[in-house]
Amino acid sequence: MANRQITIGAGTDFVIQEKGLEFPKRGETECKVVLGAFYVNKNKTIAAIFDAFAPSLDEIEILKEDKRFLEVCDFEVEDLFKFEVVATFTGTWIEALEWLNKRYENLRTDGMNAKREKWLKEKDNK
Q1: Which of 44, 65, 63 is nearest to 101 (CA)?
Q2: CA nearest 42: which of 57, 54, 24?
Q3: pTM of model > 0.85
Q4: Cα 24 from chain centre
Q5: Within 10 A of 99 (CB to CB), how many other CB atoms are there?
Q6: By C-alpha distance, which of 5, 19, 23, 12 is closest to 119?
Q7: What are phi and psi of 101, to 5 degrees?
Q8: Distances from the Cα of 7 to the Cα of 1, 4, 67, 69, angstroms
Q9: What is the pLDDT of residues 19-48, one digit of tens each?
């Protein structure tokens, strides 16, 4: 059986969802880690995750206990700033979240999230 095709859209926030999936109706959402939006399809597999922040490595460790995050899929990463595919890999949802954590760590230090955080601090100081 072929792996499910999953798209990761990464910009200032992220979306991971089954390729070609129309926005799912909110289904079972129980998850041990708070995620912006977490959707499960009828097969009880992950359909989509949306959030403004990537989970921390500690949160990812907790998610490793959830079998749904261990499913192997084919991931295609789209840069939402450039609107192009920048990477592809076969791996688990855990590996996809680890990839996002690393990417957002870079953004926090030198990218859009750093600029946003600076703007918020300046705004709070006014």
Answers
A1: 63
A2: 24
A3: no
A4: 16
A5: 19
A6: 12
A7: -60, -45
A8: 19, 10, 20, 15
A9: 776 655 555 556 666 677 788 887 888 888
